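hey can u check if this looks right to u? its 399 residues, i copy pasted from the old doc so theres a chance i mangled smth
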Amino acid sequence: MISKIFMYLLAVWLCVMFALYLSAPIGWTFVYIFVCAPVFSFLVTLFLHTKKSIVLTVDVNRTMLYKKETVTIKITAANNSLFPVPAVKLFLAVPEGLESVSSYKSCVISIPPRSETTVEVVYRAKVWGSYRIGVRSAELHDFMKFFRFRMSCPQPEESGLLHVIKVFPDIPEMAGDAPILRAAAENAKLADDSEETRETDNVNCFSGMPGYTHREYADGDPIKRINWKLSSKRDKYMVRLDDEIESAQQNIVLDSRGGSDVYENERAVEGVLAAALGLLKCGFESAVWCRFAGAWESFSVSEPADVSSLQLKLADYSFADETEKCGRLPADELSEKGSSSGILLFTSLFDKSLSSEIASAEDMGIISAVISSDSVSAGNAYQIWKLNEDYSAELISKS
């Protein structure tokens, strides 16, 4: 601003020197023009601002996209007056999970009288989530850029200056023999924890009452017949030979609070989808618990279409902030429902607060195996798994 004023005063001084030493009529004419220019510029800009002659509209070509896909914002500024609009500076809303292909966060446009100007901005999705994109605020500048007026933009729901964009999380592949899936079966107790299939000292049978025999897993055996508890004890897959296999539903929980790293938050969300799909491929249904609008909701996953539906639902998921007082796992809901005593808890903020809730849940008979994407985990649990960037999980602690 100071440099602009200096250049303006220098131009006036040159005009005065021209009038005094070269040509008075022409020189003084330029002096009058330069002196009156800021006044005229200010009055025209003030008129445009007062009469609200500029109307902004924002449109998007899509509202739902996968990561690495692009969305185009079309910003139109219409001038309803007889005066040209010198410059409108638009400040764009650029969420952390999206990146501008053009690499700018604001743009300046001019509008002829009774006309409109359109600009397009392209964003690429980087991280899962729900975002607001569009025009955050706008300023009207005069011709000489001496003055500026903040334009009073209507509320987003009234003007459409901000649009909600949802980015789907990925569904990573998790191998069917992944140790974390075996932990899911063990922690949920499954049907193998019933008295009819408990391991005994019977020499002829690996476990259970007479008639319930086991052998080592062989290629082609149904995954659903694996006795996960016995397999964990013997460190090899054991298949139950009885005809009656009980259906068991695993409980997968997404921590309601996230950390400060958006990529670790994303890994926790996508880890939930990976585990649900992995268990489904192994023949196990699951119940995924997430907190929406302050209440815990359970989503049953019994077929591949359910995973896709859950992916759509999680595109609209957001972690609770620090000001919200809410439970981080649905202990009461699980207890009331009489669900399995073991859960897989995915979190991106494994701290002492979560450890305290896990301990309280244990008093209710709910054992948690924590799968953490948090790079600075500081909590304790029955089992702690580290969720890597490639969505493999490694056991780092077991009590």
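The CA atoms of residues 53 and 193 lie 74 Å apart.
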